[in-house]
Amino acid sequence: MLPRKLEKSFIEEAKKAIEEFFGTNPQTSKDYGRIVSENHFNRLSGILKDNEQKIVYGGHTNATERYISPTILGNITPKDPVMKEEVFGPILTVIPVDNVKKDCISYIQNREKPLSLYVFSRDSLFVSEIVSNTDSGGVTVNDVVMHLHVIHGFPFGGTGASGVGSYHGPYSFAAFSHEKPVLHKYHGAEFINKARYPPYTERKTQIMRSLTEEKIYWWSKYLTPFTVAGGLGAMAFVLQSRFNKIFSAIFQICNNKTSQIQTIVVGRFDLLLLIKEQNF
Question: Which residue numbers delimit the Aldehyde dehydrogenase domain (predicted)?
């Protein structure tokens, strides 16, 4: 998908790149591969046949070799047959639009999530907007395919119709592992479970809901790590000041060598001290 005004120049540059890689006849190039199976060859040949009026470069096939030449389809619209399924072959579709940002985002959002998304632009804001407003298995900016294996530890996988889960590195281990939860219940206190058993009442329903439903309180959004840390710090400061006053009173009693019962009230803390008469 590209701006309409760039379609012709893009196609010409794409032709030059293909011939630079494989020559004017890719079928004779030792670097150009073949379709992996007859089934996929037939599928791709069918795509070319259904869209033969849109072929602007290539389109040659050889069933014996399962050869399909590098092919460019120009002036493609979302309604063309080639856009009904993923290609997975040497066929490049060129979709000219009037507004790339607007049309690209809406086009992706209104269809199944793709396995990969490739964005070519020097405008970092444009790239950020595309990535933030679309969903795909993975994204590479100003290149293709490289997010699959170049960066060690990068997860690779689809989302929605393009796949489930990821692999590579620890993601492979997680994808093929199962976390088995095991709950051990104390064999006694069966009376606690009466709320689970018939006959059911409104009271039992309320009890089970209170125990099983996730509760989201209005104040939960404020429980960030910073507010929790700040609250704990303030609590520690208050407790320290209270205990300092308590210990100060204890030392004062001991120094006065008195025999008495003292009630020291510090805020909400009541401390009852019994000091025996003796020399300290």
Answer: 4-180
**E strands within the chain?**
2-3, 55-57, 61-62, 67-68, 71-73, 91-93, 96-97, 116-119, 138-141, 261-266, 269-274
70: Cβ contacts below 8 Å, ≥ 6 apart: 18, 22, 26, 32, 57, 58, 90, 92
- What is the predicted pLDDT for the residue at 280? 38
pLDDT tens by residue, 173-207: 888 888 888 988 777 777 778 888 898 899 888 88
Look at the alpha carbons of 195, 196, 200, 204 in this order and tell me if their dihedral is positive or negative: positive
What are phi and psi for residue 233, nearest 5 degrees? -65, -45
Per-residue pLDDT reduced to its tens digit, 41-76? 999 999 999 999 999 999 999 999 999 999 999 999
Among residues 52, 39, 120, the alpha carbon closest in space to that of 91 is found at: 52
This prediction's pTM = 0.64
The residue with tokens 């298995």 is 137
Q: Could you confirm whether domain 2-175 is CATH 2.60.120.1440?
A: no
How far is C-alpha 261 from the geometric centre of its chain's CA atoms?
65
Q: Could you give phi then psi for residue 81, rounded to 5 degrees?
A: -55, -35
pLDDT-derived band at 219, boundaries 50, 70, 90 = low
Determine the straight-line distance between the first and last CA of the chain, rounded to whole angstroms: 90
With the CA atoms of 133, 136, 139 and 141 taken in that order, what torsion angle do they form, in degrees rounded to the nearest 10? -50
What ranges do the domains of the chain cover?
2-175, 224-274
